[in-house]
């Protein structure tokens, strides 16, 4: 078994199965630059080591609550554009790495997925979700513009009208809805998300590597189109994050005075 040291993620490989764990549980695995950079480095390690399959999971009660609102709000507006470019730009890089990884990814979701962290789900090939899994945007409440594939990847999964409704109304997608809509492929009992994902990964690891790689290339979203759509999300996010509206929305969300 190989294990590499990272600060905010854990990556290891055993018996041909790679496992990548988000490991910032005390902050609900919020997507700060350091975690995203660790993710990108771990995915590059996975590409180089080439296990038969990659399993993604997260420590704690939440899978990930997306971008750290406090991190954005506490960054002076003069520096926020650069900070946002780092966060959303690195997230887009991670999504691109997942969409072009030559092995299948199986992701286990045990709790909340909010904001841009949905990109890790949308870029996965198979998703297992427990009963407490949920998916929510929060953009129109906090005052952000969608990122993480909410416009670039989600409409292809659940339909454009449904994706737009969820984003505008900020409604939460439950686990059962996510399964019915095709966002999630498998449900599990509470606490069994990872074991089910590993069982699926074990099955995949026995299949023919070349056949799976070609199947992935033919079925995944086109990487070039996805990259262009994610770049449009980044451009809109950068424009919105430095507005008075974003300042007010973040202050209200964090319970601070604007």
Task: Name some characteristics of this structure.
Enoyl-CoA hydratase; alpha/beta; 2-enoyl-CoA Hydratase, Chain A, domain 1; 50% helix; ClpP/crotonase-like_dom_sf; Enoyl-CoA_hydra/iso; 16% strand; three-stranded mixed beta sheet; 258 residues
Structural commentary:
It is a single chain. The protein has one domain: 2-enoyl-CoA Hydratase, Chain A, domain 1, CATH 3.90.226. 50% of the residues lie in helices and 16% in strands. The protein has 12 helices and 10 strands. The mean pLDDT is 96. The chain has a 7-stranded mixed sheet, sandwiched between helices. The chain has a 3-stranded mixed sheet with strand order 6-8-9. It is globular. The chain is of the alpha/beta class and 258 residues long. The chain has helices at 33-49, 69-73, 77-100, 118-122, 139-142, 154-158, 160-169, 175-181, 193-205, 209-219, 223-240, 244-254; strands spanning 2-4, 9-14, 17-22, 53-58, 105-109, 112-114, 126-129, 134-136, 173-174, 186-187. α1 packs parallel to α3 (77-100) and α3 packs antiparallel against α11. The longest helix has 24 residues, at 77-100. β2 (9-14) and β3 form a beta hairpin.
């Amino acid at each position: 078994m190989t294990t590499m040291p990272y600060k905010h993620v854990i990556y290891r490989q055993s018996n041909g199965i790679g496992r990548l764990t988000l490991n910032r549980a005390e902050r609900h695995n919020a997507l700060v630059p350091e975690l995203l950079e660790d993710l990108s480095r771990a995915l590059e390690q996975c590409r180089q080591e080439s296990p038969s399959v990659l399993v993604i999971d997260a420590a704690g009660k939440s899978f990930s609550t997306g971008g750290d609102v406090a991190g954005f709000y506490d960054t002076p507006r003069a520096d926020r554009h650069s900070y946002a470019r780092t966060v959303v730009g690195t997230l887009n890089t991670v999504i691109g790495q997942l969409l072009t990884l030559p092995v299948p990814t199986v992701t286990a979701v045990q709790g909340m997925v909010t904001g841009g962290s949905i990109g890790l789900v949308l870029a996965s090939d198979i998703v297992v979700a427990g009963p407490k899994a949920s998916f929510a945007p929060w953009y129109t409440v906090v005052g952000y513009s969608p990122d993480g594939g909410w416009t670039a990847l989600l409409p292809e999964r659940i339909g454009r009208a449904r994706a737009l409704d969820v984003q505008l109304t900020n409604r939460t997608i439950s686990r059962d809805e996510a399964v019915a809509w095709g966002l999630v492929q498998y449900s599990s009992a509470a606490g069994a998300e990872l074991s089910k994902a590993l069982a699926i990964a074990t099955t995949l690891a026995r299949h023919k590597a070349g056949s799976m790689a070609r199947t992935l290339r033919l079925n995944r979203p086109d990487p070039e189109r996805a990259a262009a759509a994610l770049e449009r999300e980044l451009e809109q996010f950068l424009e919105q994050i430095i507005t008075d509206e974003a300042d007010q929305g973040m202050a209200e969300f964090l319970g601070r005075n604007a």
